[in-house]
From TrEMBL:
Its EC number is 3.5.2.7. The keyword RNA-binding does not apply. InterPro entries: Amidohydro-rel, HutI, Metal-dep_hydrolase_composite, Metal_Hydrolase. The keyword Hydrolase applies. This is Imidazolonepropionase. Binds 1 zinc or iron ion per subunit. Its cofactor is Zn(2+); Fe(3+). GO terms for molecular function: imidazolonepropionase activity. PANTHER family: IMIDAZOLONEPROPIONASE, IMIDAZOLONEPROPIONASE-RELATED. Zn(2+) binds at residues 86, 88, 256, 331. Keywords: Cytoplasm, Histidine metabolism, Hydrolase, Iron, Metal-binding, Zinc.
Length: 427
């Protein structure tokens, strides 16, 4: 080894899950291959993993290099830092007033048609100052970190004007600079047709393409572009127009596809080669096959279908059988999924989507990293990657989704720095 020291050695790990072995997405049966070892260790230098694996092998690899600090994992479970690849982190207000409507059987699309839902949050976000949005989003990001999330995606889409979209993206950029959690920004100006453009969706699409996308690109505020392809929102044709324009400008592509109705969004994701397609509750086999052939990651959001009380869930089991790469996410937002808990999502992945604990962990680590284009630096514990990891108050992986409703996190390391200790954020 070139350097002459190890900054931190985490040893006496009961079960170490590394996710080593496959540089591509884990598809189909590969999602069960988590590269778990008993009595493991992780050696860290300059915030980067120097070695990870069985403790005796790690000690042999680092040889006689001095170790500045040691941390005894006390036989606990250690995994890569969790990754949340689909959130609407920056927004104003909340929508608890819609709970009564849901309980009375009013659907998501009906609430939207009445001017609620996303449009309600748009009004709150437009009224909020940048500092207010920052403070609210930071609180949620703190919660995510305390629950083991070390990297997350953050979408805009609650401004729907050029300046308000830029406002959201500036908040995400500042959080990425100042908060331990790494954020990947996605521009989603096409989240909804704003009230002032009602009946004139074509004009709004032109606004997104001709004004919003170029300015977001000029300021370097987002890596990806997303669009909500859904009945009453943006058609397949409109979605394709926006995404093709974004692709020409150098954005990576994402799509909210087939969440409520089978619109053909999954087929469009395959056609355009999107990095990921999200929701997919109503996606057809034809759409899933198009995604499989194009290597699109299927991002399933079980907390959303749970909260909307939908009878149908994304067919994750079918996706895995077809050979797709599946990721899981909270879809944290103020309406359809107001939760920051990726641990809850892991439980729902097992109970409602029929995934195994191994598949679930793959879906919130390495596959989630691929869904946001960051698998070269995070998502697994192997030499050369960031030292992002979680020590859980458990000794078996299955215990995490089995014992739900609590926080299992004991310690979180981000770039080799301890940011959560004994379940508490280190300020």
């Amino acid at each position: 080894m070139a350097n002459n020291r190890i900054d931190l050695l985490i040893h006496n790990i009961g079960t170490l899950i590394t996710m080593q072995g496959n540089r591509e997405t884990r598809k189909g049966s590969e999602m069960s291959e988590v590269a778990a070892v008993r009595r493991g260790a992780v050696a860290i230098r300059d915030g980067i993993i120097a070695a990870a694996g069985p403790e005796d092998e790690v000690l042999a690899q680092i040889g006689g290099l001095p170790v500045e600090r040691k941390h005894d994992a006390e036989g606990r479970l250690v995994t890569p830092g969790l990754i949340d690849p689909h959130t609407h982190l920056v927004h104003g207000g909340s929508r608890e007033h819609e709970l009564d409507l849901k309980l009375k059987g009013v659907s998501y699309l009906e609430i939207l048609a009445q001017g609620g839902g996303i449009l309600s949050t748009v009004r709150s976000t437009r009224q909020a100052t940048e500092e207010e949005l920052y403070s609210k989003a930071k609180q949620s990001l703190d919660t995510m970190l305390s629950l083991g999330v070390t990297t997350a995606e953050a979408k805009s889409g609650y401004g729907l004007t050029l300046e308000d979209e830029l406002k959201q993206l500036r908040v995400a950029r500042r959080l990425n600079q100042e908060h331990p959690v790494d954020l990947v920004s996605t521009f989603m100006g096409a989240h909804m047709v704003p009230e002032e453009y009602k009946g004139r969706s074509g004009e709004f699409v032109r606004l997104v393409i001709e004004q919003m996308l170029p300015e977001v690109k000029r300021q370097g505020l987002a890596e990806f572009c997303d669009v909500f392809c859904e009945h009453g929102v943006f058609s397949v044709e409109e979605s394709e127009q926006i995404l093709l324009a974004a692709k020409e400008m150098g954005f990576g592509l994402k799509i909210h596809a087939d969440e409520i109705e089978p619109m053909g969004g999954a087929q469009l994701a395959g056609k355009l080669g999107c990095i990921s397609a999200e929701h997919l509750i109503a996606a057809s086999d034809e759409g899933l096959e198009a995604m499989r052939q194009a290597g699109v990651v299927a991002v399933c959001l079980p907390a959303t279908s749970f909260n909307l009380r939908l009878k149908q869930h994304a067919r994750a089991r079918r996706m895995i059988e077809m050979g797709l790469a599946v990721a899981l996410s909270t879809d944290y937002n103020p309406g359809s999924s107001p939760t920051e808990s990726l641990q809850l999502v892991m439980t729902l992945g097992c109970l409602n989507l029929g995934m195994t604990p191994e598949e679930v962990l793959t879906a919130v680590t390495i596959n989630a990293a691929h869904a946001i284009g960051k698998a070269d630096t995070v998502g697994s514990l192997e030499a050369g990657k960031q030292a992002d990891l979680v020590i859980f108050k458990a000794d078996k992986l299955a215990y995490l989704p089995y014992h739900f409703g609590i926080n299992h996190v004991h310690t979180v390391l981000k770039r080799g720095n301890m940011v959560v200790s004994d379940g508490t954020l280190i300020r």
